[in-house]
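Task: sequence in, structure out. Protein: HTH araC/xylS-type domain-containing protein.
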Amino acid sequence: MQTSFIKNYTINDIVDLLGDKPQKNSDLHIHLSKNNFDETPFIAPFRAGNYTFLLIVKGRFKVQLNLITQTLHASEMIIIKPQTVVQIIETSTDLEIIGVSFTLDFIFKILLNKNEFDGIDFLTANSYPKLKLDAEEQETSVLLSKLLAQNNDAETSDMPFRDEIIMHSFGLLLYHYGAIFKREHPNLDAHLSRQQEITLRFFKKLNNHFKNERSVKFYADSMFLTPGHLSKVLKEVSGKTAGQLIDDAVIMEAKLLLSNPLLSISQIANDLKFSDPSFFGKFFKKKTGLSPSKFKNRSK
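Result:
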């Protein structure tokens, strides 16, 4: 196999090839198929540019992942990781699948306010074990995937807390599969690259200190790295610099606090350690395009 001629497919490429419509989040796509695989659009091998949870609802799916052949049947799922060379070998005529594709950056959005990262180490396993789900586990997987698809549909009318529903639904699906992997493969050989390890360490520290520390130098010093190197690693892994991720954490917390009708803008500015409400207001508007008061009114 000549890997130099293998195309790298991003989520947008996969959306185009499948004939799906683009969804709300460009770094998340849910494909629900039903008896529409008379001919696969993926004729040649390709390199995955993102993660995919692939669940076989019905039928049979034969695929090579980095030259390792896997045959999946109904109620089985497998994770396709970035940089995996994928070649579809055979599909049954009655095939029904659910594919949830997402980027590493989307995972970090979910985990930004989480204290534990152990639940996602199954995503970094060197091997490609498949899971056999029981009826209840498959039902849960399908339900969560459809809930994600419904809320990530770009044509769905906006509703309050839509982004939060997407984030929490994805988080539930992530930990749902993670729990099954831990149960079925307790000794799974999970491996984090040096860059991923640095990124996860940064997010742990960010979760603990973002209210009081918004200096890149603080986080770099605590990790014995230079600010430039830390930002370079974070940019490579998550697509954002340390400064952008720190601002994201503050804005996410600010939005949550502004959604609480019992808290004033002054109280929120104080809780987030801004020198005064005016400075907080300028920061929030610069990052979101809305003043805190306008955002607060829209959240009612």
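The CA atoms of residues 24 and 154 lie 5 Å apart.
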